[in-house]
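Troubleshooting entry. Yesterday's outputs looked truncated, so today I'm pasting the complete records for two proteins to confirm everything comes through intact. If either block looks cut off, that's the bug. Protein one:
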Amino acid sequence: MEGASRSTIWLVAATLFLAVEAVLIVFVDKPLSLWLHEIDAHERAVIDVFRFYTAYAKADWYLWPSGIAGLVCFALRRRKGLEAAWRKFAFFFTAVAGAGLLTALLKCLIGRARPVQLQEFGIYGFAPWNWVEARWHSFPSGEATTSFAVAVALIVLFPRWRIAFWVFAVAMAGARVMVNAHYLSDIVAGAVVGSLTAIAVRDLFARKGWLFSGGAGGN
């Protein structure tokens, strides 16, 4: 019964996600992109603010520090406290890297045109199986994926700061819409991929006994 109930929840969640994506693609993406184009033309200084901090949604900002810190802690793991530390860094790194790899694969398989190509290809411009050209890699948003993977992983580790982490994720992902680099539906899809990947990695670490044996955020 529990398995059937969980399957039903996932089915409902997947159906809801697809419905939201359909509504965004059909009714929201195009008018919002056109409006933001006008805003950029007349209020460039405002949009430049979003361009500045959206750069911090790149995965490199989180993978390099966590990867290096994890390796250092692993090398010194016999010292007090570092055994748990390297496992936490490993969890964080795996969550962010895994989410990024999955999104990169989806981008290439789906091949959605970016908003900059809206006038040329329209809202339904797709070139599936495009492994090279970044202009066809709009869906899902990589920055949204990274932002939400980072946020969810940090919430697992530091649940008391969950509100701050959610604000961070929404601000970073939303900036990609504001600079017209992605459609809103791309952002929502990236947020879902990032969040679910981080949760899946958490469950894997807990199931293997690598971390969270004392519950979420435990050692």
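Protein two, checking that the full record survives here as well:
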Amino acid sequence: MQFDYVSDLHIDHWDKRFITDTPYGEAKNYPMDWSNTRSDILVVAGDISDNIDNSVKYLREIKKHYKKILFIDGNHEHYCAKPSLLDHYYFSEAFRNTKDIHYLPKEDVIIEGTLFIGCCGWWDYDGGKSEITHKNIYHRAKADYDSLVERLQKYEKDDKVKDIVIVTHTVPLPRFVREKETDHNSQMVKINSVRYPKISRWVFGHNHKSYNLIGFGITYLSNPRGRPEDYDRETYTIKTSKGKKGFIDLIQ
């Protein structure tokens, strides 16, 4: 099962049509080029923009390049709701009448025996003991983790599912962490301590670094654009996963 994958597009920093007042750094005008897509399926691992309406509009706009888009929310999609988080149903309803754009936290997608499941993932922080934002994130992180594990256990027993692709915004392993004070304690990392043989690939984002590594029998993939003030990717390439390939790396 081949698919294109991207994350952290942050279109409000790269496309003048979506630039808004933002405290998070520089804005340039280098819109994405979607004319050279190589697959029928696009996986988007969160953080399209800081404005959920712009994120929705953008996915509808680029749908013409793909037969299916599978996406999850990143933490930036929720900035408009601080200190609360947007409900999962908000994203589902946004595409209820749009064919073949699938929000993975509320819809599992099976294509030719390959199952795509996912969620943002979030972080534990200090167990939600401090500010209200952390409490909300802590509870959502637990709910995301519990939901993902429940689905993994279900589909490991389903003969129709030959392999599983997980999509999260948060990182799947501590080695991918950007900020150790917060990002390292995503509950998603616990999934790797239990062997789910059907997991073949894990697409993630958030840390704005690119990865294509193999460990625990899983190919870990990340293709973020980021923002101008980090890696300044004025030229950004959509990447394609053709299967269980990558640089051999003994993550264990």
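Both blocks look complete. Sanity check on protein two: The first helix runs from residue 52 to 62.
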